[in-house]
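User: Carbohydrate kinase family protein. Structure?
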Amino acid sequence: MTRRVLAAGHVNWDVTLRVDALPDPDGEARIESQHAAGGGSAANAAVSLAGHGVDASILGSVGDDENGLLVERELAEAGVDTDRLRVVDDGETSVKYLVVAASGQVMVLGNDGANEAVGPDDVDAETVADADHVHLTSQRPETATRLARLAADAGATVSFDPGRRLDARDFSATIERADVLFLNGREAASVLGSEYANAPPTRGGLVVVKHGARGATVHTATGSYDHPGFDVDAVDTTGAGDAFAAGFLAVVLGADGIDADRIERALEYANACGALAATSEGARTAPDRPEVEAFLDDQY
Ligand code: ADP
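Assistant: Predicted structure:
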């Protein structure tokens, strides 16, 4: 059975600038290369999911400008259903400038843009009607909570990858409703408390904690699984988290929702996705299923 996943949240246009070093105030850096492509956590996850053979659709918003057109075209070319991508009249597509230094340090500049135009009143049962699973990424907390509730009412499972603005917003109502929660170590410490690694949360869902180059851990109500990650030459880890989440979902979602028997395989596959994404530039660099399988075959 094809699983249908709706990814909801940010849809951006990303410009990645590789510089020799991040400049100090009043300083200047040399751009060594630049690369522009679609980005945004929900869009990245949707494209990755499509690459793993999942029937993926996107819920989000762009402006009616040239970047919005480019974003929509890229999503459609990747096989993502864009019927729920809202184009805001006179809106400006959200743009992120990712400044990546040779050392690996990253600085992000962004406008607000149109990427949070979808609010709680814009979504209803119809929005999630086709989905077996809803993957929520950074967006307005009220929208995320409403979508989680609608998904649960429709019998769909929910994952949540809140991302770096977790500290600035109260996502607790969405976190409570998520069947799968993706966090990095810093986010996990703030949501779950610093002892999270030794005391897996007793909630029913899965909590997946990403440790960058050191892999990831899945906490379940009955135990934890670790994967040490893969040793690769990382050039840009932007988007590694989105690639990881998509890979994990592509494997763990079974015909009847989350399949506990697939957790270990999903963790390995997701780590391969994150590692491969880290080896190329830009946020939209997730590998597809044949690339991940070839990579995994080479490891053993
Ligand atoms: P986020 O980008 O959300 O903060 P991480 O940086 O932890 O998340 O990356 C997500 C996953 O991508 C990691 O759990 C790991 O599997 C993989 N990954 C990230 N950076 C590297 C790296 N330098 N080498 C190998 N794998 C990496």
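The mean pLDDT is 91. The CA atoms of residues 233 and 279 lie 6 Å apart.
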